[in-house]
Amino acid sequence: MKLIIMRHGEAERFRVPDKTRSLTSQGEKQAGTAGMWLNHCLGVDTPIDIALVSSYVRAQQTFAKLNEQIVVKQKHLCDDVIPEGDPKVAHDYIRVLFEDESQPNVILIVSHMPFVSYFLEEVNIAKQSMLFDTSSLVIVEYDVAIGAGKIDSIYHPV
Question: Is the pTM of this model over 0.85?
Answer without folding.
Answer: yes
